[in-house]
Amino acid sequence: MLGEMGLDLKSKIILVTGGGSGIGLEFARQLVALGNTVIICGRDSDKLGAAARETGAQAIAGDVTRAEDQDRILSEIRTQHGRLDLLINNAGIFLAYDFAADPDALHKIESEIAINASAPLTLTLRALPLLRESSEPGGLFIGSAVAFVASPGTPVYSGTKALIHHCAQTLRHQLRPHGITVFEALPPVVDTDMATVLKSDNFKKMKPADLVREILNGMRESQTEMLLGQSRQIKWLSRIAPGFLFRQFAKTEFH
Asked: What is the structure's pLDDT at 230?
């Protein structure tokens, strides 16, 4: 159970999904530097290996949308460490396309829902026995400011983040009696390779290092729902001027 002083981010066993690049790679850098044992997983074994060598994290290649890979990753953690203190559900994809015209739309719909929505929940469920072995267990969902507003250029992405936002709230309530603290971070657009397709003067891209630093500070301060960067304004505008906010998002260009 989270103590009054917040989460102690030292000497923890931490699993970061999507740890080979972007936000996940930055989590590995900062958490290893704090003295934690960090396990990163991802589908690209070459990228994952390079990230592990750079950060000092342990790498387990695997696709978190596959049940057998989830089981294998968690089994390796149990064998090597006996517990899991923090699960960071970071893996995700961001796809901008025309729902009616894109010939690959069906595959994109299925992939985005599987990676962004289903995998974080099924992995969390499978990880519960390992988390219960920890004296201070927690789970972190990386959400998005678009949980509060539909993004017209991305027909599925904002919906997956809205689902995660609601699930994080309900799991926080349901898992609290089990001593497991559920965190959610809702960043704005982050300056990673995934966001290079997005072109807009309305939204400032947040640096991954700044984002991760703020998230870790928030967890230390017992902030279970963290609005970061422009996300605060986006949530506020979604309540008082949702039509205006939607039109601003509709102006976003993707290349």
From this structure: 87
